[in-house]
Amino acid sequence: MTTMILPPADCTTMAEVRAGVDSLDRELVALLARRFGYMDAAARIKPDRGAVRDEARKAQVIANARAAAVAVGAPEAAIGALWEALVEASIAHELARFDATRG
């Protein structure tokens, strides 16, 4: 039996809410896997390890996420904090991939 995923406004039970959250979590993980694939590509393309951390680009990515949050009515501060953690995890991943492929 397949559970129908309802829009949040249509949920009337916690089971429906949880089904929606679990479904979205699976989608988010798949999207994050794609994003980390781009970090793998960056590690392959960047000419030296020092190019991995780019504070100006980090600030731009976080600002873009915050602006996107505002545009869709999501909590800007929470999205900013999530993106801060995401970008730092991405940098750590990229550094590890850079070292693994160049070491």
Draw up the topology in text.
Blueprint: H1 14-45, H2 55-72, H3 76-102
Helix pairs in contact: 1-3, 2-3
General description of the model:
By secondary structure, this protein is mainly alpha-helical. It contains three helices and no strands. The mean pLDDT is 96. Helix 1 (14-45) packs across helix 3 (76-102) and helix 2 (55-72) runs antiparallel to helix 3 (76-102).
The helix tally amounts to 3
Taking the sheet with the most strands, its summary is: none
Mean pLDDT: 96
The structural class is mainly alpha
- Computed over alpha carbons, the radius of gyration is 18 Å
Relative strand content: under 5%
Q: Residue share in helices? A: over 70%
What's the oligomerization state?
Answer: single chain
How far apart the termini lie comes to: 49 Å
Per the principal axes of the C-alpha atoms, what is the gross shape? Answer: elongated
The number of strands is 0
| Unreliable segments of 5+ consecutive residues | none
Characterize this entry briefly:
With 103 residues, the chain is an all-alpha fold.
What labels would you give this structure?
mainly alpha, 103 residues
